Amino acid sequence: DVKVTQSSRYLVKRTGEKVFLECVQDMDHENMFWYRQDPGLGLRLIYFSYDVKMKEKGDIPEGYSVSREKKERFSLILESASTNQTSMYLCASSIDHSPLHFGNGTRLTVT
Amino acid sequence: AQSVTQLDSHVSVSEGTPVLLRCNYSSSYSPSLFWYVQHPNKGLQLLLKYTSAATLVKGINGFEAEFKKSETSFHLTKPSAHMSDAAEYFCVVSDPPGANNLFFGTGTRLTVIP
Known about the structure:
Chain A is mainly beta. Chain A is 0% helix and 53% strand. Chain A has no helices and twelve strands. By secondary structure, chain B is an all-beta fold. Helices cover 0% and strands 54% of the residues of chain B. The relative contact order of chain B is 0.33. The chains are: A mainly beta, B mainly beta.
């Protein structure tokens, strides 16, 4: 069974801090994704990656960057956290056009 | 343009009664459609998917959905609700099919009353 692991369940950071959210998958999937989930807005795609060192912007990339140095790991970086980035962040992976497999999420609070 | 509309933000049913969660979509191509479930403090789990085969799709935990092209609908149903079905449900369209072409509905929260 595919396992997508997000390193933190809850994070509290201060405005202006640099924040790293880590995601690891164990099934050799090429595709990895970062979404944020907000009440009433569903899931919105921040960035995705089709391969190592590849990245593509999603619908809301502003204020975020990503890193994919190894196939199994996809990191989301908030260069300077702001309060409007308080949200639930979900990582997912997939192979080809198969459905996404999601991690359990990281709930980030920026104060 | 592609979009997904979940017609109810909150549905409440009694245990043992049928569940109906409604989803309408718009697409330019032949879409793939999915339902995901999210239990509290968990990620999303795939319930079922439609990818242009049979229009009635059976998923896990007794759920099923019917693709109706003429109505552009993909409603999720279950004959008898269980307490463990209480969760948030997301309808998703992939159009054209592809992992980076996913459009998520805003979710329907299902409450099951004992």
